[in-house]
Protein backbone atom coordinates (compact mmCIF):
# COMPACT_ATOMS: atom_id res chain seq x y z
CA UNK A 1 0.00 0.00 0.00
CA UNK A 2 3.05 2.30 0.23
CA UNK A 3 4.28 4.13 -2.86
CA UNK A 4 7.73 4.99 -1.51
CA UNK A 5 10.75 2.79 -0.81
CA UNK A 6 10.56 0.79 2.44
CA UNK A 7 13.77 2.33 3.77
CA UNK A 8 12.43 5.84 3.11
CA UNK A 9 9.17 4.91 4.82
CA UNK A 10 11.14 3.71 7.83
CA UNK A 11 13.09 7.00 7.85
CA UNK A 12 9.86 9.05 7.63
CA UNK A 13 8.30 7.22 10.57
CA UNK A 14 11.45 7.49 12.70
CA UNK A 15 11.60 11.25 12.07
CA UNK A 16 7.93 11.95 12.73
CA UNK A 17 6.24 12.37 16.11
CA UNK A 18 6.01 8.83 17.55
CA UNK A 19 2.79 6.95 18.26
CA UNK A 20 1.25 7.44 21.67
CA UNK A 21 1.24 4.41 23.94
CA UNK A 22 -2.50 3.98 23.39
CA UNK A 23 -2.11 3.98 19.61
CA UNK A 24 0.81 1.55 19.84
CA UNK A 25 -1.43 -0.76 21.88
CA UNK A 26 -4.32 -0.51 19.39
CA UNK A 27 -1.93 -1.06 16.48
CA UNK A 28 -0.44 -4.16 18.10
CA UNK A 29 -3.75 -5.65 19.26
CA UNK A 30 -5.37 -5.08 15.86
CA UNK A 31 -2.56 -6.97 14.12
CA UNK A 32 -2.77 -9.79 16.65
CA UNK A 33 -6.52 -10.23 16.90
CA UNK A 34 -8.41 -8.73 13.94
CA UNK A 35 -8.75 -9.92 10.36
CA UNK A 36 -7.26 -7.70 7.62
CA UNK A 37 -5.16 -5.54 10.01
CA UNK A 38 -3.74 -3.56 7.07
CA UNK A 39 -7.07 -1.68 7.10
CA UNK A 40 -5.67 0.16 10.15
CA UNK A 41 -4.53 3.70 9.38
CA UNK A 42 -1.23 3.15 11.19
CA UNK A 43 1.37 5.53 12.57
CA UNK A 44 2.28 7.69 9.54
CA UNK A 45 -1.22 8.14 8.16
CA UNK A 46 -2.66 8.48 11.65
CA UNK A 47 -0.23 11.26 12.48
CA UNK A 48 -1.15 13.05 9.25
CA UNK A 49 -4.87 12.80 10.09
CA UNK A 50 -4.15 14.14 13.58
CA UNK A 51 -2.18 17.08 12.16
CA UNK A 52 -4.90 17.95 9.63
CA UNK A 53 -7.50 17.85 12.39
CA UNK A 54 -5.43 20.00 14.73
CA UNK A 55 -4.92 22.59 11.98
CA UNK A 56 -8.64 22.55 11.14
CA UNK A 57 -9.77 22.74 14.82
CA UNK A 58 -13.13 21.12 14.03
CA UNK A 59 -16.19 21.37 16.21
CA UNK A 60 -17.81 18.41 14.48
CA UNK A 61 -16.11 15.50 12.72
CA UNK A 62 -17.68 12.57 10.87
CA UNK A 63 -15.83 9.34 10.12
CA UNK A 64 -17.21 6.59 7.90
CA UNK A 65 -15.40 3.32 8.61
CA UNK A 66 -14.18 2.99 12.19
CA UNK A 67 -12.43 -0.41 12.05
CA UNK A 68 -10.79 -0.62 15.52
CA UNK A 69 -10.88 3.11 16.32
CA UNK A 70 -7.30 4.14 15.51
CA UNK A 71 -8.13 6.89 13.00
CA UNK A 72 -11.07 8.16 15.08
CA UNK A 73 -8.71 8.66 18.02
CA UNK A 74 -6.22 10.51 15.78
CA UNK A 75 -8.91 12.79 14.32
CA UNK A 76 -10.41 13.51 17.74
CA UNK A 77 -7.12 15.10 18.87
CA UNK A 78 -7.99 18.31 17.02
CA UNK A 79 -11.54 18.73 18.30
CA UNK A 80 -12.48 21.96 20.03
CA UNK A 81 -13.24 21.82 23.76
CA UNK A 82 -16.90 20.98 23.20
CA UNK A 83 -16.30 19.13 19.92
CA UNK A 84 -17.74 15.76 18.95
CA UNK A 85 -16.73 13.07 16.47
CA UNK A 86 -19.32 10.70 15.03
CA UNK A 87 -17.88 7.45 13.69
CA UNK A 88 -19.92 4.89 11.74
CA UNK A 89 -19.07 1.24 11.18
CA UNK A 90 -21.14 -1.65 9.82
CA UNK A 91 -19.30 -4.41 11.71
CA UNK A 92 -21.18 -5.02 14.95
CA UNK A 93 -18.61 -7.66 15.94
CA UNK A 94 -16.04 -4.90 16.50
CA UNK A 95 -18.32 -2.70 18.62
CA UNK A 96 -16.99 -3.69 22.04
CA UNK A 97 -13.37 -3.54 20.90
CA UNK A 98 -13.88 -0.07 19.42
CA UNK A 99 -15.53 1.19 22.59
CA UNK A 100 -12.73 -0.28 24.70
CA UNK A 101 -10.05 1.40 22.57
CA UNK A 102 -11.85 4.75 22.70
CA UNK A 103 -12.11 4.43 26.48
CA UNK A 104 -8.39 3.61 26.74
CA UNK A 105 -7.69 6.83 24.85
CA UNK A 106 -9.85 8.81 27.31
CA UNK A 107 -12.17 9.99 24.53
CA UNK A 108 -15.51 8.38 25.39
CA UNK A 109 -17.03 11.85 25.83
CA UNK A 110 -15.66 13.04 22.45
CA UNK A 111 -16.39 10.10 20.15
CA UNK A 112 -19.87 8.77 19.40
CA UNK A 113 -19.85 5.31 17.80
CA UNK A 114 -22.79 4.36 15.57
CA UNK A 115 -23.08 0.78 14.33
CA UNK A 116 -24.94 0.47 11.04
CA UNK A 117 -24.79 0.98 7.30
CA UNK A 118 -23.50 4.50 6.66
CA UNK A 119 -25.79 5.00 3.68
CA UNK A 120 -28.73 4.60 6.10
CA UNK A 121 -27.21 6.32 9.13
CA UNK A 122 -26.01 9.56 7.51
CA UNK A 123 -29.48 11.00 6.75
CA UNK A 124 -30.44 10.58 10.42
CA UNK A 125 -27.53 12.74 11.64
CA UNK A 126 -28.79 16.29 12.03
CA UNK A 127 -25.46 18.09 12.15
CA UNK A 128 -22.92 19.80 9.91
CA UNK A 129 -19.22 19.06 9.81
CA UNK A 130 -15.89 20.82 9.64
CA UNK A 131 -13.99 17.60 8.89
CA UNK A 132 -15.08 14.32 7.32
CA UNK A 133 -13.01 11.17 6.83
CA UNK A 134 -14.24 8.40 4.52
CA UNK A 135 -12.61 4.97 4.66
CA UNK A 136 -15.44 2.65 3.68
CA UNK A 137 -16.96 0.65 0.79
CA UNK A 138 -15.66 2.05 -2.46
CA UNK A 139 -18.81 1.40 -4.51
CA UNK A 140 -20.63 4.04 -2.46
CA UNK A 141 -17.96 6.77 -2.55
CA UNK A 142 -19.92 9.02 -4.90
CA UNK A 143 -23.12 8.42 -2.91
CA UNK A 144 -21.38 9.35 0.35
CA UNK A 145 -19.80 12.42 -1.25
CA UNK A 146 -23.07 13.75 -2.64
CA UNK A 147 -24.84 13.13 0.66
CA UNK A 148 -22.11 14.81 2.68
CA UNK A 149 -21.28 17.90 0.59
CA UNK A 150 -24.45 19.67 1.87
CA UNK A 151 -23.50 18.65 5.43
CA UNK A 152 -19.97 20.06 5.09
CA UNK A 153 -19.41 23.60 6.36
CA UNK A 154 -17.75 26.19 4.06
CA UNK A 155 -13.97 25.60 4.12
CA UNK A 156 -14.67 22.19 5.62
CA UNK A 157 -12.41 19.29 4.69
CA UNK A 158 -13.34 15.87 3.33
CA UNK A 159 -10.55 13.27 3.36
CA UNK A 160 -11.08 10.06 1.38
CA UNK A 161 -8.77 7.05 1.80
CA UNK A 162 -7.60 4.43 -0.74
CA UNK A 163 -8.04 6.67 -3.80
CA UNK A 164 -4.99 5.18 -5.58
CA UNK A 165 -6.13 1.62 -4.86
CA UNK A 166 -2.77 -0.20 -4.98
CA UNK A 167 -1.92 1.76 -8.13
CA UNK A 168 -4.75 0.14 -10.09
CA UNK A 169 -6.24 3.53 -11.05
CA UNK A 170 -3.45 4.08 -13.60
CA UNK A 171 -3.64 0.57 -15.06
CA UNK A 172 -6.06 -0.74 -17.66
CA UNK A 173 -9.16 -1.30 -15.55
CA UNK A 174 -11.06 -4.52 -16.22
CA UNK A 175 -14.81 -4.04 -16.82
CA UNK A 176 -15.62 -6.29 -13.84
CA UNK A 177 -13.29 -4.46 -11.42
CA UNK A 178 -16.13 -2.61 -9.72
CA UNK A 179 -14.08 -1.11 -6.87
CA UNK A 180 -11.34 0.37 -9.06
CA UNK A 181 -13.95 1.78 -11.46
CA UNK A 182 -15.82 3.35 -8.52
CA UNK A 183 -12.65 4.98 -7.16
CA UNK A 184 -11.58 6.28 -10.59
CA UNK A 185 -15.06 7.72 -11.20
CA UNK A 186 -14.99 9.36 -7.77
CA UNK A 187 -11.59 10.96 -8.36
CA UNK A 188 -12.74 12.29 -11.74
CA UNK A 189 -15.93 13.70 -10.21
CA UNK A 190 -14.02 15.56 -7.49
CA UNK A 191 -11.41 16.92 -9.92
CA UNK A 192 -14.20 18.47 -12.01
CA UNK A 193 -16.44 19.65 -9.16
CA UNK A 194 -16.49 23.47 -8.92
CA UNK A 195 -17.87 23.24 -5.38
CA UNK A 196 -14.48 22.12 -4.09
CA UNK A 197 -10.73 22.11 -4.58
CA UNK A 198 -8.60 19.07 -3.87
CA UNK A 199 -5.19 17.42 -3.84
CA UNK A 200 -4.40 13.69 -3.89
CA UNK A 201 -1.56 12.80 -1.55
CA UNK A 202 0.29 9.50 -2.22
CA UNK A 203 0.35 8.49 1.44
CA UNK A 204 0.02 4.71 1.79
CA UNK A 205 -2.88 3.92 -0.59
CA UNK A 206 -3.65 7.56 -1.44
CA UNK A 207 -5.65 10.28 0.33
CA UNK A 208 -7.89 12.68 -1.58
CA UNK A 209 -8.00 15.86 0.52
CA UNK A 210 -10.96 18.00 -0.52
CA UNK A 211 -11.85 21.52 0.67
CA UNK A 212 -15.39 22.81 0.18
CA UNK A 213 -15.49 26.34 -1.23
Write a short abstract of this structure.
It is built from 8 helices and 7 strands, in the order αααβαβαβαβαβαββ.
Spell out the blueprint of helices and strands:
Blueprint: H1 6-14, H2 21-33, H3 42-56, E1 60-64, H4 70-76, E2 84-89, H5 95-104, E3 111-115, H6 118-121, E4 129-134, H7 141-148, E5 152-161, H8 178-191, E6 196-201, E7 207-212
Helix pairs in contact: 3-4
Counted beta strands? 7
Biggest sheet, spatial arrangement of strands: 3-2-1-4-5-7-6
Unreliable runs = none
User: In what range is the share of β-strand residues?
Assistant: 15-25%
Shape: globular
How many whole angstroms does the radius of gyration measure? 16 Å
- Structural class computed from helices and strand pairing: alpha/beta
Number of helices: 8
What value does the average pLDDT take?
96
User: Level of helix content?
Assistant: 25-40%
- What is the H-and-E element order? HHHEHEHEHEHEHEE
Q: What is the makeup of the main sheet?
A: 7 strands, mixed
